[in-house]
Amino acid sequence: MRALVISGGGSKGAFAGGVAQYLIEHKKLDYDLYIGTSTGSLLVSHLALKKVQEIKEIYTNVTQDSIFNVCPFNIKRKKGIETISINHFNVLRNLFSGSKTFGESQNLKKLIYSHVTEEGFNVLKSLKSDIVVTVSNLSLNQVEYKSVKDFDYHEFIDWVWISCNYTPFMSLAKKDGCEYADGGLGSMVPIEEAIKRGATVVDAIILQTEVTQVNRMPSLNAFSLLTNMFAFMLDRIEFQNIRIGKFVANNQGAIINFYYTPTVLTTNSLVFNKEKMNLWWQSGFDFAKYKDSETSPLKPEKTE
């Protein structure tokens, strides 16, 4: 049983799309399980349907307005460097309206609905392959995995959207009496879950470099400090997920093929730059092609 696992990573999901395109279209790999977290959850439905060009079009054209109906920050570009600062008007308006978050991401839900039709959902549900997305249940303090097999169209779209809600910058969802948020808050790289579901070979796309290469700039304001803190916590969660995944794989006799980003793509994955995301998609495709040429199928990558 072969699984494709795609980690969270916001705009860096464009790189994952490029890697997946090579694996599916050029290496002709068929997957029994597609499992994603956050941006990975956005990718897996289209990949399972083999609609690679359609998801590429989405990822290489998305903007802040495509995601946020209330954007909590301003983006400033100076000398090629992007910095963010709080949008005081939007944040205060959102809090005064009774919201629990700085921003709202209802536009993202509309985007998902517009590209995952009910007809496409029915095809997904009829596939032999399983499609699973990761969410964090804040009320019960646990990570949950939602399979397309278990829900109707509107419920599954909700779970995909919830998996991507990077609170407190995006919407906080309430469903079945519980508060839910981005799956990455609990499981950035769900390798362990893929193996629990029977995967013996896992292709894991990690939207981070294998060795830490980031030396973050000093925080410019309270908002950038908050984003830096969240980025630090998610990096630690990702590192732990990978270690646990390797441990479980070794004990179950599973093979993991890792696809890390070769360079640091961005230090703020909430910034959606169409030009850069086009480059990242192509970079992911080229990297997977290079890795395939360098790695013999008789010598799978070790997971120790």
Automatic annotation (TrEMBL):
Motif GXSXG: positions: 36-40
GO molecular function: hydrolase activity
Active site: S38, D182
Residue ranges of domain PNPLA in the record: 4-195
Superkingdom of the source species: Bacteria
Motif GXGXXG mapped to chain: 8-13
Record bears the keyword Metal-binding: no
Protein name according to UniProt: Patatin-like phospholipase family protein
Naturally occurring in which organism (per UniProt): Gelidibacter salicanalis
